[in-house]
Amino acid sequence: MKKIIFTEEAPAAIGPYSQAIEVNGMVYTSGQLPIDYKTGLMSDDVEVQTEQSLKNVFAILKAAGVDPENVIKTTVFIKDMNDFPRINKVYETFFQGNYPARSCVEVARLPKDALVEIEVVACK
Q: Which residues are catalytic, by number?
């Protein structure tokens, strides 16, 4: 049976989807845009966007009762692969030593013209 995960400490979904779903002890987040849930605004700096996307992901994980060390897979969508080193610099501050598996893909365009979007899979 699936359980919908929601927190007010991350932006609400901008479409017909949930922030995350838990099923059989696994939590699957939707892609998190770098929107500040308090202001509804988004920076134009890729490092700030990466940090905000991860803060949003971690807020959802907290609402699901999941320790960030239990993230097993991340998918990072970026607008420009040239930003990869800057994104990595921020990313590694959230996952220190106990790195999850990861995919990173360049995409033509992201919702709200974001530069980065991040989703994760975690276990309880």
A: 104
CA atoms within 13 A on the CB side of 103: 10
Q: What are phi and psi for residue 22, nearest 5 degrees?
A: -110, 135
Which residue do the tokens 């959802």 mark? 60
The model carries a pTM of 0.97
**pLDDT (average), residues 70-82:** 98
Helix (H, G, I), strand (E, B) or coil at 84: helix
Residue 33 and residue 111: Cα distance in Å, rounded? Answer: 8
- Residue recorded with tokens 């949930």: 18
Domains and CATH numbers, the chain: 3-123 (3.30.1330.40)
Query: 21 φ, ψ to 5°?
Result: -130, 135
User: What local confidence, expressed as pLDDT, does residue 96 receive?
Assistant: 80
Phi-psi region of 114 (alpha: psi -120 to 50; beta: other; left: phi over 0): beta
Q: Has residue 102 got a pLDDT over 90?
A: yes
Do residues 68 and 112 touch, judged by C-beta distance below 8 A? no
Residue with tokens 């995919």: 103
